UniProtKB/TrEMBL annotation:
The gene is NAGLU. Its EC number is 3.2.1.50. Residues 474-733 form the Alpha-N-acetylglucosaminidase C-terminal domain. It comes from Rhinopithecus roxellana (Golden snub-nosed monkey). This is Alpha-N-acetylglucosaminidase. GO terms for cellular component: extracellular exosome; lysosomal lumen; membrane.
């Protein structure tokens, strides 16, 4: 009976939106042809024929592509959906042409003539969905994007086979309409919304008000952007996930409805109730279905629907009661508000709540949530499955369909990190789990544009029925495609990285950079790593050795900078350890030596290196924020939003350095002054024979941190200097010290 119920639940999801009407085939094929022209140019695009044929899929809902031709003939790309055809095109470019598609820049040198496909190559995905995004990605990576950048991302999504993704822009404009209809004033609405860089947490009920309000121009631009995003996603046959009402309301609702039954939730993220402690409607309150259906009806009227909606009621917030009856009622209220508007509604739920607070979410509590929605109408994201899967301890989410997701990155941090062995084997293990209800794989990073090797592997696994058999060979080929040519030293460097930074294992693995470089300094900083630093330094040497042959590759220059940045990060930890030991031993000369190198040589060298690549510029980051504005005052406001997120993440450093980045300008004017103040304080303590006072230092350094956030200083948005020369300069100075153990 269990197997039958599981099959039925999975069946609902397999058929949900499983390829639109046949009339959509022409539209999807046209979208892929336009993608080919954008990607390769109109000339090379003429060498490809693209068609979309629903009948190509032999099983409902399982995307399929077929490749043929080439050589003297045009390359034939057929797909059961536009996404399938785009994924087939990517497969041909990758495996037959040695090309590479990436966030940091693609390598698309096509061999001539185009290689022939032996016979007909047909591939079907093993699962219904390839999901993309995290609610937080909207704020950490997408917040300042214009349509041109969104177009690039949707192309990347299609080429990587993504067919299910969040589309949450513009929802505050819809909420504004709903709140005005309910009787709230514009001033009350303005007070409720956070600033743009923090909307993700406003949407999940964690925050309100912080660094707002939203200008009216923001709503207009986001509505326009959302329409374009949805149109393009749908043109490929993707399923956009729209937001739904999760139960959180502005406090002003209690003024309009004095008898309303609400619970004031606890604080979140070290914020006080001025910015957190959201108000949650009781599920039995009659206003709950009214607000929920008002919002969804207005949303669908504006944007249309593909029948999958996201909502997170208890994200990183403990529910008011652990009683299963309450949790079931709260879940039911959200779902019933959806189906009151859309009888075909499927609820996409981030399973992070079960992983984040396991002490609260026991079997009875989890069962209450999962059992409150009909099987097949709740689609759960096992968000952190590569490290801490939830499906294994919930009997495959009690029969509800789920997507095995790789979270990988927290806060959009820079820093080489991955758990490639776990990622490689994870989806197959989930598929083979007893009575598995897995219906897809997903990539759910909080921030993107980092560690591209990890996402290339995960995207490929969405189409594989088994793991990659030889990861060492896979990363060697990855490097050759990425740089456009095979080089033995570059391949060896990547194999070393695979064995070290990309081989984290166990539940402690988290892609959150806690290096001393990007943390507020103290004497208690943890410098331990899960890998042998020697592998990083040797990979650095090997990659530099290959520079004469590969320096023309933009991707190579990016990787060389990123690996040099990582080596400097390691050196900061080592010099910090030396400075700390010198302080504890009261050796002033050694302290001044180690501290001087760290703060006055190493960090300035890192900033200079980062300034050589436009992808590592604070100026470019802030320029994106300012470009969204329609006035100078708005531009200043958006820039301050961005600076807060990168650093203090709150008025008092509430989630300090969570979203740390290593960007030119940020290193020079934020991290470096902190380190100098810290090391000077240690030296003064030793010289005067008094203990270092961390509490006083924290107060002093906060003034520096806040000054950076409030500063109007402009930073270059164009690179300067040569990455290879600067990386070599750092290498020649510090690598011999590493080898000699005399840093």
């Amino acid at each position: 009976m269990v197997a039958v119920a599981v099959a039925a639940a999975v069946g609902v999801l397999l058929l949900a939106g499983a390829g639109g009407a046949a009339g959509d085939e022409a539209r999807e094929a046209a979208a892929v042809r336009a993608l080919v022209a954008r990607l390769l140019g109109p000339g090379p695009a003429a060498d490809f024929s693209v068609s979309v044929e629903r009948a190509l899929a032999t099983k409902p809902g399982l995307d399929t592509y077929s490749l043929g031709g080439g050589g003297a003939a045009r390359v034939r790309v057929r797909g059961s959906t536009g996404v399938a055809a785009a994924a087939g095109l990517h497969r041909y470019l990758r495996d037959f042409c040695g090309c590479h598609v990436a966030w940091s820049g693609s390598q698309l040198r096509l061999p001539r003539p185009l290689p022939a496909v032996p016979g007909e190559l047909t591939e079907a995905t093993p699962n219904r969905y390839r999901y993309y995004q995290n609610v937080c990605t909207q704020s950490y990576s997408f917040v300042w994007w214009d349509w041109a950048r969104w177009e690039q991302e949707i192309d990347w999504m299609a080429l990587n086979g993504i067919n299910l993704a969040l589309a949450w822009s513009g929802q505050e404009a819809i909420w504004q309409r709903v709140y005005l209809t309910l009787g709230l004033t514009q001033a009350e609405i303005n007070e409720f919304f956070t600033g743009p860089a923090f909307l993700a947490w406003g949407r999940m009920g964690n925050l309100h008000t912080w660094d707002g309000p939203l200008p009216s121009s923001w709503h207009i631009k986001q509505l326009y952007l959302q329409h374009r995003v949805l149109d393009r996603m749908r043109s490929f046959g993707m399923t956009p996930v729209l937001p739904a009402f999760a139960g959180h309301v502005p406090e002003a609702v209690t003024r309009v409805f004095p008898q309303v039954n609400v619970t004031k939730m606890g604080s979140w993220g070290h914020f006080n109730c001025s910015y957190s402690c959201s108000f949650l409607l009781a599920p039995e309150d009659p206003i709950f279905p009214i607000i929920g259906s008002l919002f969804l009806r207005e949303l669908v009227k504006e944007f249309g629907t593909d029948h999958i909606y996201g909502a997170d009621t208890f994200n990183e917030m403990q529910p008011p009661s652990s009683e299963p009856s309450y949790l079931a009622a709260a879940t039911t209220a959200v779902y019933e508000a959806m189906i009151a508007v859309d009888t075909e509604a499927v609820w996409l739920l981030q399973g992070w709540l079960f992983q984040h607070q396991p002490q609260f979410w026991g079997p009875a509590q989890i069962q209450a949530v999962l059992g409150a929605v009909p099987r097949g109408r709740l689609l759960v994201l096992d968000l952190f499955a590569e490290s801490q899967p939830v499906y294994t301890r919930t009997a495959s989410f009690q029969g509800q369909p789920f997507i095995w997701c790789m979270l990988h990155n927290f806060g959009g941090n820079h820093g080489l990190f991955g758990a490639l062995e776990a990622v490689n084997g994870g989806p197959e293990a989930a598929r083979l789990f007893p009575n598995s209800t897995m219906v897809g794989t997903g990539m759910a990073p909080e921030g993107i544009s980092q560690n591209e090797v990890v996402y290339s592997l995960m995207a490929e696994l969405g189409w594989r029925k088994d793991p990659v058999p030889d990861l060492a060979a896979w990363v060697t080929n990855f490097a050759a495609r990425r740089y456009g040519v095979s080089h033995p030293d570059a391949g060896a460097a990547w194999r070393l990285l695979l064995q070290s930074v990309y081989n984290c294992s166990g539940e402690a693995c988290r892609g959150h950079n806690r290096s001393p470089l990007v943390r507020r300094p103290s004497l208690q900083m943890n410098t331990s790593v899960w890998y042998n630093r020697s592998s990083v330094f040797e990979a650095w040497r090997l990659l530099l050795t290959s520079a004469p042959s590969l320096a023309a590759s933009s991707a190579f220059r990016y990787d060389l900078l990123d690996l040099t940045r990582q080596a400097v990060q390691e050196l900061v930890s080592l010099y910090y350890e030396e400075a700390r030991s010198a302080y504890l031993s009261k050796e002033l000369t050694s302290l001044l030596r180690a501290g001087g190198i760290l703060a006055y040589e190493l960090l300035p060298a890192l900033d200079e290196l980062l300034a050589s690549d436009s992808r590592f510029l604070l100026g470019r980051w802030l320029e994106q924020a300012r470009a969204v504005a329609v006035s100078e005052a708005e531009a200043d406001f958006y820039e301050q939003n961005s600076r807060y997120q990168l650093t203090l993440w709150g008025p008092e450093g509430n989630i300090l350095d969570y979203a740390n980045k290593q960007l030119a300008g940020l290193v020079a004017n934020y991290y470096t002054p902190r380190w100098r103040l810290f090391l000077e304080a240690l030296a003064d303590s030793v010289a005067q024979g008094i203990p270092f006072q961390q509490h006083q230092f924290d107060k002093n350094v906060f003034q520096l941190e806040q000054a950076f956030v409030l500063s109007k200083q402009r930073y270059p948005s164009q690179p300067r200097g040569d990455t290879v020369d600067l990386a070599k300069k750092i290498f020649l100075k510090y690598y011999p010290r590493w080898v000699a153990g005399s840093w």
